[in-house]
Design a protein that fits this description.
The complex is a heterodimer of chains A (about 325) and B (about 100).
Chain A (H helix, E strand, L loop, with lengths): L12 E6 L5 H14 L4 E5 L6 H5 L8 E4 L2 E5 L2 H19 L2 H6 L1 H8 L4 H15 L7 E5 L3 H35 L4 H6 L4 H20 L5 E8 L2 H16 L4 E9 L9 H17 L5 E5 L7 H8 L9
Parallel strand pairs in A: 1-5, 1-6, 2-4, 2-5, 6-7, 7-8
Antiparallel strand pairs in A: 3-4
Chain B lengths: L1 H46 L10 H4 L3 H16 L4 H6 L6
The chains are: A alpha/beta (about 325), B mainly alpha (about 100).
Chain lengths: ~325, ~100
């Protein structure tokens, strides 16, 4: 790296999002490399079930955190592995508390919940919180390469929606316990049974986790969401919508990376496309005025492997302003 | 003197039991029934998907299973055998 490099004024949690195929993964990896180069212990996380981080970086990255180079770690979250771990923990706990016969009886129902819609997201989200909690001890910064927009927005708005739901459950349980206590005034057996309530404890612990995630995600000092797009109509519209939605949920949005811009030397064949592109670039500049806009030209080959990412990474110093 | 005391304590014990049987037991049964009903409803919110009602956080609710597993099968049976909600409710009130 050259001496003219500026230090990146990074936040602990940086997300890269955008429409599929715009180059999120390359941008996230290049950004992570920029942070690692200035000495921040950085973790790259891919939350997209269809992972491509390993391909972009050009090294094996699995579902466990691996060290890639000085100051840089990587992980590709595998929802299936995470869900299995979760289930195993529950089953072990269950064997301690209830009889094997009962475990057997409800096994089928466990399977149903385990394959229910949302289970995958929930599993990713759990790992997500676990990684967030590990900040400070092992890492200074975590860079998330997220799945295409829709999936990610659902993931990030999860704590808000589920938090409300779980709050209701806690209320209901408290009410039931209150009634139980009244009924137990003359019933010592019942009174002993409700002395401590693991159900309330579990629900509260879960709510606290959601609260923590929500606090981190909505704190502009700690989290920021950058969008990657191309100078084309659909990515622009999708980005505008996503920015609006994140704002509604109180998640701070940062800069835009306009990727794969056709350079003038592209030749006469692309002349018409370049004209259209110029219009879209104008549109981006006026529509998203006030934001950092980083323009990255289309290169003569795919951005692949560490060497090419390193070439890109100094550009990202400007993204955080 | 001693005899008097034992007779007195017998009367006291009788009074206690009489009070309990006449005023407390029945009322407490009603309260307990109410508490169990609330808990049944809570189970519905937690594990509704076991009965075919979608639950947005069924995955997270699995971690409550170890503590509720014992109740789960009887609960399912109760829910599936419900016939008259009105009769169920009416049973809570004391008509005698």
């Amino acid at each position: 790296m050259t001496s003219t490099d500026r230090k990146v004024n990074y936040r602990p949690f940086t997300f890269f999002g955008g429409k599929g195929g715009t180059g999120k993964t390359s941008c996230a990896a290049a950004y992570a490399l920029a942070l690692a180069a200035q000495g921040a212990r950085t973790l790259m996380v891919s939350t997209d079930p269809a992972h491509s981080l390993a391909d972009a970086y050009g090294a094996e990255i699995g579902f466990e955190v691996v060290k890639l180079e000085e100051n840089l770690w990587g992980i590709e979250i595998d929802p299936e592995v995470e869900a299995k771990k979760y289930m195993k923990g529950i089953q072990e706990k269950m064997l301690h508390i209830v009889s094997a016969a009962i475990v057997d009886e409800i096994k089928r129902q466990i399977e149903i919940a385990y394959t229910s819609p949302g289970a995958e997201e929930a599993a990713i989200f759990d790992k997500f919180i676990e990684l967030m909690e590990s900040l400070g001890e092992r890492f200074d910064a975590i860079v998330f390469d997220t799945a295409p927009t829709g999936h990610t927005l659902r993931l990030l708005t999860l704590p808000e929606i589920l938090g409300t739901w779980i709050e209701h459950l806690i209320e209901k349980r408290k009410k039931a316990m209150h009634m139980m206590k009244m009924a137990a005034r003359y019933d010592s057996v019942l009174a002993e049974k409700i002395e401590e309530d693991p159900i309330l404890d579990t629900l509260t612990a879960r709510r606290d986790k959601f609260d923590l995630a929500r606090k981190i995600l909505t704190d502009p000092e700690r989290s920021v969401f950058h969008f990657v797009l191309n100078a084309e109509k659909l990515p622009i519209l999708e980005t505008a919508r996503a920015l609006e939605l994140l704002r509604n949920h109180g998640i701070a949005t940062g800069g835009l990376v306009v990727n794969k811009i056709l350079p003038p030397e592209a030749g006469p064949f692309f002349e018409k496309r370049r004209e259209a592109q110029e219009e879209y670039l104008q549109d981006i500049r006026s529509r998203f005025a006030g934001r950092k806009i980083l323009e990255i030209p289309l290169l003569d080959s795919d951005i692949q492997g560490r060497e090419q990412l390193i070439r890109l990474s100094p550009l990202f110093a400007d993204l955080d302003g | 003197m001693k005899k008097d005391r034992s007779a007195l304590s017998k009367i006291w014990e009788f009074l206690c039991l009489f009070h309990h049987g006449t005023f407390v037991d029945k009322r407490m049964a009603v309260v307990r029934k109410e508490a169990y009903d609330i808990n049944d409803n809570l189970m519905m919110l937690l594990f509704g998907d076991f009965l075919g009602i979608p639950n947005p956080i069924s995955y997270y609710m699995l971690e409550l299973l170890p503590y509720m597993a014992e109740d789960l099968v009887p609960w399912q049976r109760r829910m599936q055998n419900r016939k008259f909600i009105i009769a169920e409710k009416a049973a809570q009130y004391d008509f005698d």
